[in-house]
């Protein structure tokens, strides 16, 4: 590459890398730095005082700070795990329905599924809060038709978090179905034809051909699903505000509560850093797990 080409490449990359540095890298470095300080968000950065690992010690300690943090972390982990476990199988099943050619309606189904992802999460949260209404919600009315009493979906600690998960699955599954369809289109049709000649059943074709060749797509989908689930905020902020009894108090909402409402910027930054490190560990484990399974195959 000549010097002129190098300068041209740098010139084309500079706007994008500059924006990434300003809006991603700088806030990330600033958050990491503030996590080692005691700082109030109501004052300037010059008032931050270095406290070392004291904030992280508080998060792991026996005080109310540590208990609330661990409860929010556990809620986030449960929410993320349930979302991924539901979204990935549903996206594959719906993707197979959309991708099939022996029955009409695949394009229409793809459009309907993806349209749910295009609806803003704020609107989805408001609509689902009405669907979950104990007295006039359609869900309880349909349950009443089969003799099941009304459920307090968002008012009970046992069902509130699961209700938010179902809301998220409905909104996200269309996007992941499109990803599954994209992966299915990359599988050569000749493999299925050869399997039919060998007498393989539809289940064996799925287990031996479709699922292994969807491994990279499922890995990408799992990573995106985990990242999306960890960032959940709107449904909690609009519907439950972390309740009842902190059963839906997830990390993003808890960080906002501590860092903004209580003005404990250093402690909130430490929570954000801990969440970021945990997310990195989970993503690395996903890559390692699926890579090892692929090598075993």
Automatic annotation (TrEMBL):
It is a multi-pass membrane protein. The chain crosses the membrane at residues 12-36, 77-98, 107-128, 160-182, 213-233, 267-290. Residues 73-288 form the ABC transmembrane type-1 domain. It is found in: Cell membrane. Keywords: Cell membrane, Membrane, Transmembrane, Transmembrane helix, Transport. CDD domains: TM_PBP2. It comes from the Bacteria. InterPro entries: MetI-like, MetI-like_sf, UgpAE/MalFG_permease. Its main location: membrane. GO terms for cellular component: plasma membrane. One of its GO terms (biological process) is transmembrane transport. Belongs to the binding-protein-dependent transport system permease family. This is ABC transporter permease. The lineage of its organism: Bacteria, Pseudomonadati, Pseudomonadota, Alphaproteobacteria, Hyphomicrobiales.
């Amino acid at each position: 590459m000549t010097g002129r080409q190098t300068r041209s490449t740098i010139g084309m990359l500079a706007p994008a890398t500059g924006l990434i540095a300003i809006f991603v890298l700088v806030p990330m470095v600033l958050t990491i730095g503030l996590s080692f300080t005691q700082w109030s968000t109501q004052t300037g950065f010059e008032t931050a005082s270095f406290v070392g690992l004291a904030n992280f010690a508080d998060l792991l300690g026996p005080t109310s700070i540590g208990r609330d943090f661990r409860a929010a972390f556990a809620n986030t982990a449960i929410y993320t795990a349930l979302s991924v476990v539901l979204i990935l199988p549903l996206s594959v099943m719906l993707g197979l329905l959309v991708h099939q050619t022996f029955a009409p309606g695949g394009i229409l189904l793809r459009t309907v599924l993806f349209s749910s992802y295009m609806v803003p999460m704020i609107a989805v949260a408001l609509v689902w809060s009405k669907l979950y209404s104990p007295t006039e919600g359609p869900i309880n009315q349909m349950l009443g038709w089969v003799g099941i009493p009304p459920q307090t979906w968002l008012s009970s600690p046992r069902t509130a978090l699961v209700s938010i998960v179902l809301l998220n699955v409905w909104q996200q599954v269309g996007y992941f179905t499109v990803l599954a369809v994209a992966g299915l289109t990359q599988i050569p049709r000749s493999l299925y034809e050869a399997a039919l000649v060998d007498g393989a059943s539809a289940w064996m074709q799925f287990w031996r051909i479709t699922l292994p060749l969807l491994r990279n797509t499922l890995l990408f989908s799992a990573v995106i699903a985990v990242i999306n689930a960890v960032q959940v905020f709107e449904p909690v902020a609009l519907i439950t505000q972390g309740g009842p009894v902190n059963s839906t108090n997830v990390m993003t909402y808890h960080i906002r509560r501590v860092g903004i409402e209580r003005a404990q910027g250093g402690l909130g930054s430490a929570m954000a850093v801990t969440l970021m490190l945990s997310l990195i560990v989970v993503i690395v484990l996903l890559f390692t797990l699926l890579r090892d399974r692929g090598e075993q195959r």
